[in-house]
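Justification of resources, computational component.

The compute hours requested in this renewal are based largely on the per-chain cost of generating structure records like the one below. Each record pairs the submitted sequence with a full structure-token output. That output is archived, and it is also reused by downstream analysis tasks.
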Amino acid sequence: MKSSTVVIARAERAEYPQLGPFHPDQSYPEWTGLPVGAEPNGVYHAVRECLRLAGLDAARYGTPEWNPLAAFIRPGQFVLLKPNLVKELHPRDSAGWIYTVTHGSVIRAVADYVWKALGGDGRVMIADAPQTDSSFSKLVQLLQLESIRDYYQKQGRRLELVDMRQEEWTNVEDVIVDRRPLAGDPNGYLAFDLADHSEFASHRGAGRYYGADYDDGEVNRHHSGGRHEYMISGSAVHCDVFINLPKLKTHKKAGITVNLKNLVGVNGNKNWLPHHTTGSPRSGGDQFPTMTLRRTVEHHGAQSLRKVALAVPGLGSWLLRRARKAGKSVFGDNDRVIRSGNWYGNDTTWRMCLDLNKIVLYGQPDGRLPRPAQATRKTYLSFVDGVIGGQGNGPMDPDPLDSRVVLFGTDPGCVDAASASLMGFDVDKIPIVRQAFHSRGYPISVGDWREIEIRSNHQEWRGPCRQLAHSGHALSVVPHFGWLSHIEAMETLHA
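The structure output for this chain reads:
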């Protein structure tokens, strides 16, 4: 299978099984003694279809010996499964987590084929760093990951569930009121400096970056003076095989969040990550499209209150909550007003995400990045959960997307380009995907995204990637309002 090949398996229904550990609903030749579940499980079949359509171990397909991931995984290796576990709560829908995070049934199906390739001898970890104010334990419960872990444990196979964060925060009315230390990644953390090989090396935002916390001084200390540093979870670097399990969603800062954006979840400290640059494009920023008087007042007022919250946590947090609540009526809510880089002009987030992909693909366990000419790429696989995706105000407040797909590939940029095209978007209008094929120093994706070959069990999706968004058979996904009418292929523009 070429790295420029992407598989799209269409499921019969936009439906997930409900009973963990999500056994398949039928017997397959490659599984002897595997329990058969009592409910329909089209997800398992869709994952299996991806591997069949990819032509992996084709000579033994349909036999007990079929082992499709053996081309990538050897016994004794350490395999990391990285889902999108951003948040356990949806702001408008109690069941909205289903179209916000990677479903447990997708994780289970992939894990089965991983274990087969390992021959029962190896280390498998499910790990992520959710949003800092999320509950990892609640996410594990919702996705029934413990039932999957316990199922494997009965077979003598150890599956680790790891929260990669170093802290968990409590937010009240969008303001941090408590911070609790966590055990973090058992493999520790590594600091990498991409220096001149960072996508920020040519960017003029130094000193004006905003990260994930009120302390914008921290993010700027790590991205100044030629330094571009990131704190990465050790497991993402130490693993032999990295399997990305993202959700198919729109995103307010990046346009879409699939593989490339999902690597924000391998960080030990998200306040090392530039999310936007203060100001408007006129001053080299991307916080707002234009810096009107109203926005200037909003920016400076929020900045002053954040400084108070850092200096006097109790009083400052109370003042910031009151101010934010009042500010919504004056400056508008986030679901209607563009702020904080939540629009198509964000020129910061894509750079940060591509830097993270370089580190995961090429970073060494000793905390070193080899010279680009000598760099060896980590084994990388992707399975995208699009059985029910997210559209509109993603990634945290999307509407459900009846997409009914699982995508598979071995190159993050290629899979994201195919995902964007399937969504009815123009790849050239999405910097995080477009620039993955032109990354600085360390290649993420090579070639022309237009030449990506798409294989599918749905005839209308087969062929070169360049044709899909314009074919009339794309999903016609509604983007985040900050990207509306700026990301779609012309044929799929929404009113």
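DSSP finds 13 helices and 18 strands in the chain. The CA atoms of residues 10 and 161 lie 29 Å apart.
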